[in-house]
Amino acid sequence: MNNGSLLATYFRARRELIQPEDVGITREPNRRVQGLRRQEVAALADISFDYYLRLEQGRHHQPSEQVLASLGRALMLDEDAMAYVHRLAHNAARPLLRPAPRAESLDENLIRLLEYWSHTPAIILDRNQDVIRANRMALALGSGHFNPGCNLVMALFDAEVRDTFPRWEESVSQALAALRYESDPFDPRLREIVDILSTREPEFARVWARHDARPIMSGTIRSGDTALGPIDLRFQNFSVPGHGGYALRTYFGEPGTDGAAALGQLALTVDRDVATESQPIPIAGWMPAP
């Protein structure tokens, strides 16, 4: 598959999601087509049907900025979706994104920062949502899901998480949109994640087929493995410049909530465990495949 094929697949998926009424087209009786017809998209974008057909067939790899803007309006694409479209359209050679560094090459200051946040769970993620590094608080909090080598998207489909996660369906949609937006479609690790989840999780296959693409900067998780029982925590992502798509994520509780209280208790436990160690425990690390 080349970038032209990826762009074609994206346009087709988005076309099939838009209903005629969404763009002011009267639905005729007994209409059977899913979403919009190709002719309708071409007319809305003010381009020829033949030109749009070549795009959807992957036979035209580098549409102009004007064409992309017109198609974005026709397909009701937001700013994030358009950024993704431009990435597909203007990168003819593989890979689309710069390779991430190996885990052991991370900036030492970044690794130290995780441990300086001794009362804040913090992890480093790669663009496939694999956990690369985790501090002690995160390792103590995450029921194993924050252990280096674990994948946060795959963790969402664990039965325990599915049953306790707030607004699980919405969280899955956000996570998969971020996975598509941040990852490189030619990355073998991404293909591995998609193949595994597509085989065993119908909900994954349904949502992934939408081709939603947008970053995720913040959100909410629920953790059940605390002294206070299930708690809701907020998270915030920070991009790590110069590290090939790595992100630093921190978790926190809103002041006065059970989440904040539970993190305070967890910090005391972690501090006590550290104080009783004869030597510091090294930060767990996972080295992704080159």
UniProtKB/TrEMBL annotation:
Pfam families the UniProt entry points to: HTH_31, MLTR_LBD
One example GO MF annotation: DNA binding
Domain MmyB-like transcription regulator ligand binding: residue ranges: 108-266
Source domain of life: Bacteria
Protein name from the UniProt record: Helix-turn-helix domain-containing protein
The organism of origin for this protein: Lacisediminihabitans changchengi
Lineage per the UniProt record: Bacteria, Bacillati, Actinomycetota, Actinomycetes, Micrococcales
